[in-house]
Amino acid sequence: MAQRRNIAQRRSLGFTLIELLVALGIMAVMAGLSWRGLDGMLRTQEQVATRADAGMALQAGLSQWGADLNALIELPGVPALDWDGRALRITRRNVVAPETGVLVVAWTRRNIDGAGQWLRWQSPPLLTRGELQSAWLRAAQWAQNPGDEERKLEVRVAALEQWSVFYFRGDAWSNPLSSDGGIAIPRGGPVAQPALTLPDGIRLVLTLPAESPLQGVITRDWMRATLAGGKS
With a threshold of 0.70, does the pTM exceed it? Predict the structure, then answer.
């Protein structure tokens, strides 16, 4: 009877040291598992957010690319479109404030801080032919060797490994520089000349970096709205 009373008294005093150590070990294991699970969830959430941001930026760039081509305008003495293997230059309408003049925009790829970037450049509104010709040459200079002033007018669109542009002419896609449909500009700049035939469509091929949130190859076709029916 006395022995049972002693056992009951010891139990009422609390856990033994071994029981405490076992409990602490179980809690440590559970805490470690919980932290690993929480850390994995946070990493996944960050990756999803980064991928979503990259996707939105790329989609915005592709939408702007299409908007620039849709606003393309042909003016006397000034090229409307040119691909020189490095940049695509476009003379386009100013849909935001048409009364202030037209715009010259350019797209190119350039290495920045060791990584390829898809870039867009836009001139201020232009009213005279002289301003247009100057902006056209400035856009080419920006694509080849930009200065500080030219860089102020550029926007980084998305990470880009490489890109290609093709023209749709004669019911086929071809390299713009391999046919007589290319709009070549003399070294002295654009001069008054007969209107050159624009391509029926433009194909954009983007290769995204393997280490970026988005990978793979994206192809985007644009066709002139004046064509009867679509081609792809």
Answer: yes
